[in-house]
Amino acid sequence: MAKAHVTTTINGEPVEYLCETQQTLLDVLRDELGLTGSKEGCASGDCGACSVIVDGRLVCSCLMLGVEAQGRDVETIEGMADGENLHPLQQKFLEEAALQCGICTPGILIAAKALLEKNPDPTETEVRYWLAGNLCRCTGYDKIIRSVLDVAAESKGA
Ligand code: FES
Ligand code: FES
Question: pTM for this structure?
């Protein structure tokens, strides 16, 4: 079957690619574009490891087709830092030892970024609910939640 030609924006850069019409955005990112920061945990929309931001909305890239990125603005974990400068959430996760493994952490960071862009001053309950779709089997989540709240508080004070 002929591949689809997609023109999109990824991390602020215009990008074109060819993909199978049934290929997920996650597979396109990883297998066609070499952006392997987004991970496949479940492939069913349950774990959040594949989280990306599309037109300002948090989505599971395992549930979106690559062809659906046509004309959209996609943000992945690779675009979160500004060159050598980490995003405040990345910096805070380092400082507060909130980092988990390479499978779950990219999705958690992208989800937290999407939250603070939508709601810059969330309550702890709102952070917990928002990140409930990002699963890690290994942590109690407290350092993650604290880091997000601390970034929000510092942004408010800035
Ligand atoms: S891999 Fe997409 S939600 Fe788990
Ligand atoms: S799944 Fe990443 S540390 Fe638990």
Answer: 0.96
